């Protein structure tokens, strides 16, 4: 049965009706087709693609061109989930007008419906300008991977009373700037739950506990496809990486032992044509 297209209004209603929102990152066409079939509310084309698709050590190297390339592929594969494109490092930090223009490229060129921006109060002016331009924005606070060196590494945020209060101020500022939802990453569950209650817009947690209005995971993490970084908050729902290695090993063994290709993988030739062919080449 085909599902109806998920909209921002549906996402907001999920919060009002206390129905948890599901979000997953996706970076290519085939994965988008599969994720869309699995009834996910929101697909995020995250800049985490720099690590899991492109092999960078972090997300700061990711460019606008790389993001748009992957967003286009996902947009071709997904027709139901709400599509969010992640604005990469330095595509919105230097200048508000540049941020608005780059946000627009995600919609005009890459088939996204919304953008996501990392940062707290310092990004509020840019978010307000992008929303005023007619582009829905998802915020992202807590552990913000684009500024991981400033944060001193991939570490949990909001552990002290002062930093928890600062996160709450950030969340309220982003809501006031017009965000339709906010990702809360690597924040103590009690703090994230409290922030979620204080906001009228939905929060989407990653390492932020069950009190958020929804949850997001990285596709490669939850499927067991990437093992260079395994945060505590990841639950693996599959061991697809291992399944791929086993399948490729079996293929390789079967090629070497001539078990593959078998009869059923081979195109037959009409007997008369075969005899004529052999006769024609007999004297060569
Ligand atoms: O880039 C990403 O995948 C993200 C999620 C972890 C929220 O920002």
Our estimate of the beta-strand percent is: 5-15%
Order of helices and strands: HEHEHHEHEHEHHEHEEHHH
Distance between the termini: 60 Å
CATH-derived topology of the largest domain: TIM Barrel
Total strands: 8
Q: Could you say which overall geometry the principal axes of the C-alpha atoms support?
A: elongated
What is the residue-mean pLDDT, rounded to a whole number? Answer: 96
Ligand species: 3-methyl-2-oxobutanoic acid
Number of domains: 2
Q: Which percent range fits the helix content?
A: 40-55%
- Which CATH class of the largest domain is shown? Alpha Beta
Supply the CATH superfamily name of the largest domain: Phosphoenolpyruvate-binding domains
Number of contiguous helices: 12
Strand order, main sheet: write it out: 1-2-3-4-5-6-7-8
